[in-house]
Design brief:
Strand 17, helix 3 and strand 18 form a beta-alpha-beta unit. This protein is of the alpha/beta class. It has eleven helices and 33 strands. Bound molecules: 2-acetamido-2-deoxy-beta-D-glucopyranose (12 copies). Keywords: Signal.
Length: 577
């Protein structure tokens, strides 16, 4: 009985699959089945709430990798978090006072560092020496113990201590304290490191050398430079060009990008499940000095690729080039997030496109959309900017509950294209909406921006993106250096968190004069009438205005910041206190 039921289910799945497509595990066409629940096992396994506070002890290397002979440039550190939570960790009886004794070993109990770390703290660093380690492409196992009053907390991770990059090119590390990227150009022989806020666009790579389309592609590369984007993510025209229409033309394109000082996010969307092809591409390009990231699956969760496929591609790339991170983009709101995302990447992008979208109706497929059925173009979205903040928050939080808060930064893919109303959206986003998407994504922890897509974009979107990029670069001391201080803050208006005002702060302390500086970035994403303003002050942030960076912010009589924001607008201000 049991078996025959299973068989029936299996057969009917096959039969349906042949007739009706699925996206994110949902049927979406007229006449397709409408299941009453999501596929078994596909939803994210959130840990349950614990009444007893828990100590979430995390212990990873502060850089995603260390290079032999590079200790002076990037002093090796262990990064320790001892957060108190109610969902991850082991029971903690007591308040947040007291220090834990932390001991760290590699492999067979070879001690590498110890220290005293406060309970409930984030981002403590313990230096360690590589003197007794042999550089290897094989990762070391890291074992960490924290003890206090006879109680012990254990956690494990890995330590990557690699030989000097044998391919030349460049080495790209993830700085786990901030989630930013650190690039070292190996080709020039200099050991200088550049810590960056990656900001770029996907672009359609079109045509073969010498043709008009190819020249247009190159011209968009020059334009990216003009706009101040620091990387570009070229996409091959279609799956027939595996990987590119003409390889020589593509190499020339890479040369031009290199001359311009633009990094490349290298896309393998049509080839990433073909191990031989991935091997050919990574081997051919790993000696280039401007490959920032490898990129495998483009919405593998939407396309429902085999669950282990992103992990397989990850391992292949990592074996060929352990010197750069592997990335991919997820499209579904909640469909095998761990298997596709966390198990298959060092860095995760998310691409909810909620603007001018009806979350309850599929314009493209003419069906209603709900949590179990349909494809509106933005999975489980309501068609508001909260879909973006919610996706950022949940992606980061899911990584956290899997012990990957530090090891898997999340990037935002803003909706920055015109689909000619052919697909799911009713109009092209405005430049203002691009700025809003970016600011709220950074407010919610994004550490990179890769918008879709500069060929289908508008001058309005591109110039606003350019403006915001410049603002973010200029505030890297907050966004990178003060990363752990980021928090949600509120206005003095009612309904905080649901009133269409999104605010976050980053704070740094200056011991030399005992003062603080706080960056506040905000957005009013209400579609209020043009020419009207939403006026508010900050409810729970102290400080007087030091510098208005952008947006309609003035100084009140007491020196505090007064925001007066029109529809879909952004603002940034630095306070001192
Ligand atoms: C720390 O724990 C709180 C819950 O107490 C949680 O909201 C927050 O995301 C955690 N932060 C990190 C970095 O783990
Ligand atoms: C590291 O841990 C993994 C998984 O537990 C194990 O398979 C491997 O043998 C360990 N490596 C070393 C060098 O101890
Ligand atoms: C407790 O740990 C903190 C780091 O989290 C350190 O700065 C401080 O010195 C430690 N205190 C003691 C008494 O060891
Ligand atoms: C290296 O190992 C030796 C022998 O175990 C030990 O005495 C020494 O302290 C270690 N050095 C470092 C820097 O860990
Ligand atoms: C961590 O590693 C140690 C030493 O290899 C091992 O004994 C222990 O079982 C591991 N713990 C976990 C939670 O994996
Ligand atoms: C890396 O350095 C080499 C040699 O100085 C230079 O030619 C190349 O353009 C640099 N690459 C990047 C991306 O800056
Ligand atoms: C493309 O640019 C090249 C180099 O500038 C030029 O020689 C060629 O004529 C251009 N092709 C077209 C179709 O415009
Ligand atoms: C996989 O890639 C290799 C190398 O590029 C190619 O020869 C082969 O045809 C590809 N296989 C498939 C199924 O596309
Ligand atoms: C979408 O709408 C539903 C129903 O009103 C609500 O429960 C949910 O929180 C909303 N999601 C977002 C991201 O705003
Ligand atoms: C502002 O209030 C929110 C909600 O209570 C809180 O999460 C946040 O930490 C507060 N921020 C500051 C700067 O006090
Ligand atoms: C305090 O010092 C910092 C760093 O030197 C400086 O940027 C800031 O303006 C100073 N603040 C005041 C109030 O002097
Ligand atoms: C700033 O907001 C005020 C309303 O509070 C408005 O009168 C003024 O025109 C706005 N300034 C700009 C530059 O939008």
């Amino acid at each position: 009985m049991y078996y025959s039921l299973l068989l029936t289910a299996a057969f009917s799945t096959v039969a349906r699959a042949a007739t009706f497509g699925q996206w994110c595990g949902k049927y979406y066409q007229v006449g397709a089945p409408m299941p009453a629940s999501r596929p078994e096992g596909s939803l994210f396994p959130y840990p349950s709430y614990s009444d007893t506070p828990l100590l979430d002890f995390q212990c990873v290397t502060a850089s995603s990798l260390y290079l032999e002979g590079d200790d002076a440039n990037d002093p090796p550190m262990i990064l320790i978090d001892t957060n108190i939570t109610h969902d991850v960790g082991q029971p903690w009886y007591g308040d947040k006072s007291g220090n834990l004794t932390v001991e760290v070993w590699v492999d067979d109990w070879q001690p590498i560092t110890t220290g005293s770390i406060q309970v409930g703290s984030l981002g403590s660093l313990l230096p360690f020496s590589t003197a007794n380690l042999t550089a290897s492409t094989q990762a070391y196992n890291l074992t960490c113990k924290a003890s206090i009053n006879g109680r012990e907390f254990w956690t494990n991770s890995t330590l990557r201590y690699l030989p000097p990059n044998p391919h030349g090119g460049n080495t790209v590390k993830i700085d786990r304290k901030s989630g930013s990227l650190v690039v070292r150009n190996e080709t020039g022989g200099s050991d200088a490191r550049e810590r960056i806020i990656p900001f770029g666009f996907y672009d359609n790579y079109q045509g073969s050398s010498g043709t008009q389309m190819y020249n247009d592609t190159l011209n968009r590369l020059y334009a990216a430079k003009q706009y101040g984007f620091n990387f570009i993510h070229p996409v091959a025209p279609n799956s027939n060009s595996t990987p590119w229409p003409d390889w020589e033309g593509f190499l020339h394109y890479l040369d031009v990008a290199e001359q311009l000082g633009i990094w490349i996010m290298y896309d393998m969307r049509y080839t990433w499940t073909n191990t031989s092809s991935v091997t050919e591409q990574v081997t051919a390009l790993r000696n280039r000095s401007n490959i920032l990231l490898w990129y495998t699956g483009d919405e593998p969760d939407g396309a429902m690729d085999p669950l282990i496929s992103t992990g397989i591609a990850y391992d292949v790339i990592n074996t060929l080039d352990g010197y750069r991170p592997v990335s991919l983009v997820l499209n579904c709101e909640n469909y095998y997030f761990i298997q596709y995302g966390l198990d298959g990447s060092d860095l995760l992008l998310v691409d909810p496109y909620p603007i001018a979208l009806n979350g309850a109706w599929s314009k493209r497929y003419n069906t209603p959309v709900n949590v179990n059925f349909g494809d509106s173009g933005c999975d489980n979205c309501n068609g508001t900017f909260y879909d973006i903040t919610e996706t950022m928050d949940s992606s980061i939080d899911r990584a956290r509950t899997q012990g990957k808060y530090r090891t898997t930064p999340v990037w935002m893919v803003p909706q920055a294209f015109d689909d000619g109303q052919q697909e799911f959206w009713y109009r092209v986003p405005t430049g203002d909406e691009e700025a809003v998407q970016t600011v709220i994504a950074y407010n919610h922890g994004a550490m990179g921006h890769c918008a879709w897509n500069s060929e289908y974009s508008t001058p309005d979107i591109l110039s606003n993106a350019s403006f915001i990029a410049g603002q973010l670069y200029a505030q890297s001391r907050f966004i990178i250096d003060a990363h752990d201080s980021r928090q949600t803050v509120y206005s003095n208006l009612s309904y905080p968190g649901i009133n269409g005002i999104d605010l976050a702060s980053w704070t740094m302390y200056h011991p030399e004069n005992n003062t603080h500086e706080t960056l506040v970035m905000g957005s009013n994403f209400n579609y209020i009438a043009s020419g009207t303003f939403t006026t508010f002050s900050l409810a729970n942030v102290t400080g007087t205005v030091k510098e208005v960076l952008f947006g309609n912010v003035t100084q009140a009589e007491d020196g505090s910041a007064l925001f007066s924001l029109p529809r879909t607008s952004v603002a940034g201000v630095i306070l001192q206190h």
